[in-house]
Amino acid sequence: LRQAAADAGARYLATGHTADDQVETILHHVVRGTGIAGLAGMARCRPLGEATTLIRPLLGVRRADVIDYLASLGQPFRDDSSNAETRFTRNRLRHELLPLLVERFNPAIDEALLRLGGLAGEVQSIIDDLVEELVDQADAPAADRLSLGAAELADEPRYLVRELLIRLWRDRGWPQQSMGYVQWDELARMLFEGRPDKKMFPGGVLAERVEDRLVLSRTNQETSAYEANR
Fold first, then answer.
1. Which of 88, 123, 158 is the last residue before a domain boundary?
2. Strand pairing report for 139-142 and 145-149
3. Cβ-contact 190, 198 below 8 angstroms
4. Model confidence over 77-131: pLDDT tens digits?
5. Do 138 and 200 lie in a common domain?
6. How many CA atoms lie within 13 A of 2 on its CB side?
7. Is residue 128 situated within a structural domain?
């Protein structure tokens, strides 16, 4: 998607995600385990490459209202047949778990999850501002290498340090798919504990405690190397 937008020279790329998609996203994150950012769900806009911004203009509109509006215009639309296949986790949430929650626990579960997402988004915005103030603490001589000093971050909450690591990792485009709380917290531990240490993390990122600094460098090794030293 990023490459297609770049090839077209698009400044903006709009998706059709609705409030119903947001409900499913937040619930999906809760079920699999998440932090504040995950509870916030999908952002209304975010960078997609250097020159393109991804926007979700329908994120506050219910799916049924979109379909009704298209019908009033006589506008045909595509419906992905795979959306009905319950072998996918997201579809099981949509067709099985959400109806069960509505019927047996809370008829207004959609509104409750959207409200939770909004509150989490406000909190995450505050966290992002605090992290922004710490970004300059990183020494980043190259795109595939950075380091953080333990002394400079000694008084910062561990949660904020994990968020800083996530931000720096994401800014470099390093793979995040296999990074979760356990991995981010392990990096924070390596930073704050004074003993020498070396570990491989998902995406071929080597973490080393060198004197009083945590040094991260992207290598050519496969993620399996991380699995091997767990």
1. 123
2. antiparallel
3. no
4. 988 899 999 999 999 999 999 999 999 999 999 999 999 999 999 999 999 999 9
5. yes
6. 7
7. no
